[in-house]
Amino acid sequence: MDQNHKTRLLTRLRGEIDTLSPRLKVVAKYILDNPSDFGMDPIRVTADRIGVSPNSLVRLAERMGYPGFEAFRAPFRSALITDGAAQQGEVWIDALQAGTDLARAQAQFAQNEINIVTRSLRLMTEDKINAALTRMLSARQVFVTATRASYAMAHYFHYVGRMALPSLQLIPRHMGSAVDELLEVNDQDVLIAITFAPYSADTIQAMRFARDRGAQIILISDSDVIAPNVDPDVTFAIATQSQHQFGCYGGAMAVLECLISHLIAAGGDDAHHAIETYESLREDTGAYWRARTTPKLRR
To answer: pLDDT over 70 for what percent of the chain?
Structure first.
C-alpha cells in the first residue's frame, strides 16, 4: 500500500472535520490524535475508547468514501510497519527485557521515549521548519507562551532561543495572564503556543486574542485540532503517549531543541557572537561555579 495514503487521509480529516456531525467529529479527532492506536485496535476497542458505538466508526468510513471500517483502517495498519522500523536493533533494550522486573519496566519506558521522540521528529518536516523560521526571523516580536508543566519548556526555549533571536519574549512573565502582555500585538508579530491535552484555557485564549489582531500562530501540540476558532499557521505535531497518567514531553523537547539549532544556524555570526557575549557576562558575574585551588599555607 502507498505509504503516503495515511498522510493524505489525515490531511483530509483535518480539512473536513468542521463539516462532520458532532459525534463523527469526536471520532475524527480521536483518529487524528491516535493514528497508531487506530491502526492497531479492533473496531469495538476503538469505539469503547472514544465512547461511541462501532456504527459511528462505520459511518465515518463511509463518509470518507470507504466501503467499510477495515478499508478505512487499512492505511493506518500499513503505516505501523514503517513506524515500527525504528524499534529494531535496540540490543540494549532487548537485554533489559531479559532482566528483572525493574529492568523490564525500564525497557518499556525507554522504548516509549524513543518512539515518541522519533515520531515527533519525523513529523517535523522541512516545509514546516521553513515556514516557522520565516515567520520568526521576520517578525517584530516573537512571543512564546505556555502554562503549568508546559511552561518549563517555554521558559527553556526562551532562555536559550533569545540569544539567537533577541525579539523572543516569554509570556506571561509574572503572575498575570498571557493576554495581559499581548495588548499591543499586531500583524507584525508571531505567537508560539505550547499546549497538550488537557489543553490550557489561558493558552487558547491567548491564541485567539493574537489571531484577532492579525498575529501569526505557531502551535506545538499533540493535535492539530485543539479547540474551535484556533487556526495556527504552522503546527508541529508532538507524540506524547506515555506509560502513566500524564503525557511524555521528550518529543516536544526534541522539537524545541531542533528549532533552537535552526535559529542559531540562521543567525550566523551574529547569533554566535550573542551567545559568546552572554557566556562572557555569566562568567564575569560568577554565574557558574568554578573550583578554586586553595593556596598552600606557608610554614
So the answer is: 92
Q: What does 103-134 look like in DSSP terms, one character per residue?
A: HHHHHHHHHHHHHHHHHHHHTS-HHHHHHHHH
CA 47 vs CA 38, 66, 73, 222, 271: distances in Å: 10, 18, 13, 21, 51
Residue 158 · residue 168 · CB < 8 Å: yes
Question: Residue 31: enclosing H or E segment and its boundaries?
Answer: helix 22-33
What span, in angstroms and rounded, lies between the C-alpha atoms of 178 and 151? 12
% of residues, the chain, pLDDT over 90: 59
pTM (2 decimals)?
Answer: 0.72
Weakest-pLDDT range from 70-79, 135-144, 207-216, 272-281:
272-281
220 SS3 class? strand
pLDDT digits (tens, 9 = 90+) for 213-265: 999 999 999 988 888 888 899 999 999 988 888 889 999 999 999 999 999 99
What are the contacts of 62-65 at 24+ separation with CB within 8 A?
63/20, 63/24, 64/9, 64/12, 64/13
Residue 220 bridge partners (DSSP):
194, 236
Which residue is listed with cell 497518567? Answer: 245
Give the span between the Cα atoms of 96 and 101, in whole angstroms.
9
Give the pLDDT confidence score for residue 85 in this predicted structure.
44
Give the pLDDT confidence score for residue 69 in this predicted structure: 92
CB of 121 within 8 A of CB of 255? yes
Write down the number of H helices and E strands in the chain: 12, 5
Cis omega (within 30 of 0) for bond into 172: yes
Q: Taking the CA of residue 256 as centre, how many other CA atoms within 13 Å lie in the half-sphere pointing to its CB? A: 24
Q: Please give the Cα distance from 95 to 260 (Å, whole number).
A: 35
Residues 224 and 235 sit within 8 Å (Cβ to Cβ): yes
